[in-house]
Fold each of these.
Amino acid sequence: MFGARKKKSTVMILEPHQFNIVGVLGNTQSNLLLSVRQISLLVFMLLLGASLSVQSAVVDRFTVQNNAQNLNLVFHLDARPDHKIFKLTNPDRVVLDLKATEIAHGLELQANHQAPIDRIRYATRADGLLRVVLDTSRQVDVLDQVRKSSSGFELVISLRKSGVIQSKEVKVTSVKAAPQQSKARTQVRHYRDLIIAIDAGHGGKDPGAIGKKGTYEKDVVLKIARDLHGLVSKEPGYQSVLIRKKDVFLSLRERIERARNLNADLFISIHADAADNRKATGSSVYVLSQHGASSEAAKRLAQRENAVDLLGGVSLKDKEDTLAHVLLDLTQRHTQDVSYAVANSVRAQLGEIGALHRNRVEKAGFVVLKSPDIPSILVETAFISNRADEKRLLSSKFQKKLAKSLLMGVKNYFYKHAADDTIIAVLRKREHIIRSGETLSGIASRYKIRTTSLRQYNKLKSDVLRIGQILKIPVSET
Ligand SMILES: [Zn+2]
């Protein structure tokens, strides 16, 4: 975390160089090419002028989640962790270093021998570094993720259960390994999936609009959301999460917070429209209005003294007014531009399968669209109050068609604009640059293709990979 000293940050804002950054962001074209992560970097740069203060973090809880694909170790911390993770071999182990971190008194880190972990060891060094060593029964793929939680932060270390790395495969060894480290030291870094948060509107005690035949909006939109979830999950480079999986009530703010905790790249809220005029028909796509964005900014700025609010991992809490305002404004403007572009792309696809209610993307102050840092759109799929639309909404064929066109709209946008650290960007170029720690089978599974296809496509004579080597990625077989 970065604590800005008031005087310094004021001076920094007045530097012409900083205004250049703001100027670039004001240009819509450049704006669309920036990812939320790049915005975080800008935010970081804006804050570099301010003094840095090292804050210690405390692990106050440790939980182990075992699911079909992964064993997840969750470190619950009271502050954002500053961590590094890497693998060592012979014997196989994963090492997690957390800077300036303590373990709460009496807390023990234990996984009770859940595969692939044999044992967890840990110790705090004199300089405050907490080192956690996971002794594993074999080589494993590891992913790390930091997410915000209600009580602070969660560092999730996911050990992949499937895709066991075969012994005949050769691991890439980092050329930058420190001399005192084992030669087999490898770093864990991957291109990332885009995360799509799918929100089925209403639910539980809130049925949403009700059709003439008694169709509940909450039911049809959940079906469309599930269809979309199924489609997105099959796409290489994408992960999708349903904000509500079943017929439950969630507040609008809770929906936003769930998407933000997931670090989603896009939030799609799915609804069905209703109007007194029973003739009203067709689909609409909404983004947040300027008024909605401004009032949200005012609200977040007003609340920042009471609650920790984060933008790209940076707290607004201790920022001087002008700086906090600039940070929020930069982030919001980027988010709105991306939302608008995605909305247009989705709207174009909806126009292919049915009528559009209006001739443009619409803007409104819907609360659910108010994430300052996650591009968000709301889709009114059709009018449940219209007899013909209601009938179509009830048909599973039309539900699937809607899901398909939402997917196409999303894909068309991200294919052109996904940030360089994403799998989609790699698929666009169809080139994967080998990083340390990667294996052929690991890469194949990331792109949802077979190892043999990858080997043949690149005419590889062996599975030995070099750092910096470029592999061509064939079109997915799924
Ligand atoms: Zn609705």
Amino acid sequence: MEARFNNPFTAEGNWFKGNLHTHTKNSDGALSPEDTVRQYKEAGYHFLSLTDHCRLTEVEQNQGMLLIQGEELHCGTSEQKFNFHFVGLDIKEEIVYSGDEIPVLKKKWWEVHPQEMIDAVKSRGGEIILAHPYWSALTTNDIFSCQGYIGIEVFNTTCYHSIDKGYSMTHWDDLLVRGRNIFGFSSDDCHNHFNDHRQNDACGAWIMVKSKKLAVREIMESIKKGLFYASCGPEIKDLKISGDKIFVATSPVKSVSFIAPNGWGEMFTALKREPFREVEYRIRGQERYIRIQCMDTQGRMAWTNAIFFE
Ligand SMILES: [Zn+2]
Ligand SMILES: [Zn+2]
């Protein structure tokens, strides 16, 4: 069985931390673009995409923080009469919304089929991530009604802290089991919204990208190849595939799971007091794909992209 996987842990380059889904005062976020960038810089992020709803927020490239132009794009009508939200990344040309209209597509935004939106962004050199499918109440039919998006948000901080709909692992596996190699992103969707019973949604999720250079072109190339992992806490330090073994090293965690279709895969739980730092899984040969997720003692998770076997 041959493993098909762009392994970020063996790829050349350095690790860079980034958040690809962020709102500012230009839509419904609480902080100005400049203050939002400062907030992420202070939290140790290297790159950030400001993705205001239905508009492009332009900020000058700022020392110490690489900015990737983005826009959150609303479109379509889902099976249950909700809408699709896409994170448009590396947007070179704004998709303008004029009231209910998207002039470039000559339609009201909810009449734009998700495929039309994906094609519009990609034909202009951008990329699409399917945002918060659980929060959006997207069904299997919905997520298969379009293609060409590079990934889905497997975790979304604001969807988690506001209504406990942050995780979309089942949606992800629904794609992977059908052979669609879609990547898993962990994003804040930061609005700086919080109250006395709701935690702030800033700086709680990220992706760690392996790239030769901290520049838009190189970071985007690495993202498109899947050379990253997603986290809202744990660090994944190593992943090696050799023969029928997968070895994973992490910061201290209470569980490491090897997720595969049907009843394949395995969860390793630290039942003694000491958390894990290393786990080895034996590939049985029936898995089709395996992705690895782990959880630390505070319940925060991290996810690798999927390893496919053929
Ligand atoms: Zn959204
Ligand atoms: Zn958003």
Amino acid sequence: MVVADIKAVVLGATGFVGQSVTQVLRRQGVAYVGASRALGVDLRDPAATAALLRREQPTHIVNCAANVGSLNYVTEQAGTVIADNVRMALSLYEAVARECPQAIVINPIANCAYPAEADVFREEDWLEGPVHRSVLSYGASRRLLWNTAECFAMQHGVKSIHLLTPNMYGPYDSTDPNKTHALNALVAKFVKARLACQPQLVVWGTGAPIREWLYAPDFGRLVWEVMQHPDRPGLEQPTNLAQNSGLSVRELVTLMQRTFNYQGQIIWDAAKPDGALKKVMNNARFRCIFPAFQFTPIDDGIAATARYYESIYPY
Ligand SMILES: NC(=O)c1ccc[n+]([C@@H]2O[C@H](COP(=O)([O-])OP(=O)(O)OC[C@H]3O[C@@H](n4cnc5c(N)ncnc54)[C@H](OP(=O)(O)O)[C@@H]3O)[C@@H](O)[C@H]2O)c1
């Protein structure tokens, strides 16, 4: 598909992930329209969602809209989180079926939708067991998004592509402590500690847990690949955007001490829970679909994220 033939609607364009997508689209010269409440469209409202798609007639819809936040947020606000996200999913698919059934919907699916017990996430197992209770509201809504997409494919032929996505980090995340994502929160902590010449920095847990991280601009580049080649074999099934490797919190902290040249003392607050020891995503399917894709090295991603936080903290 050539650039001139693409017209995208990016839902959640003002969010952390949405901004990483729109940056790539702008760079590629792709026509797109962003939507979110701040931009005047509440996707829980079926009429507003239908009006948007009727007007824009997109070829692609990148669905980065969600009511989501930290573990604390999705637990405290569990009822609102599931209600809002389910409403958005239903509004979206009903509107697509009615107004632009030819459009391809691209859904990031956060890896908290994987079963709680898994330590290596394999696509074929992603519905084999309940999600962890701490992410019940959000994880369940992502599974329902996939189920909704399947049903609208069955009845209306709507095509969707689901990208199972690890925790992301990078520029443009919210600075609200209840919304900031884990690795970004750690980078922000180091930026503040260095700027304030803090002699100590407290990190929760023992540092042992291993997690996989995706640099958000890499997600934007992958979405662009998918938009151009939606028929690549394999993409008809949910696909991990995976490297099959993670870093322990301790390794990340060492990396940040080096990046920030932080000389203060690290205090490990082992009274705080670690969670599961290891969570990484199997990349066998990913490598077949995107054999040439190069992920950004984590040092470079963290350095760019640090520059972002340095630019927004008023010291
Ligand atoms: N961040 C990660 O680490 C990560 C990892 C894997 C997958 N993902 C997935 O990526 C997607 C986006 O996450 P994010 O981290 O970018 O979240 P975010 O920063 O909170 O952004 C959410 C976006 O959704 C919009 N939105 C929320 N409620 C809306 C509503 N009722 N109507 C219209 N727009 C609404 C928000 O804008 P307004 O407030 O202006 O409405 C914002 O633009 C989610 O599906 C998430 O699961 C994220």
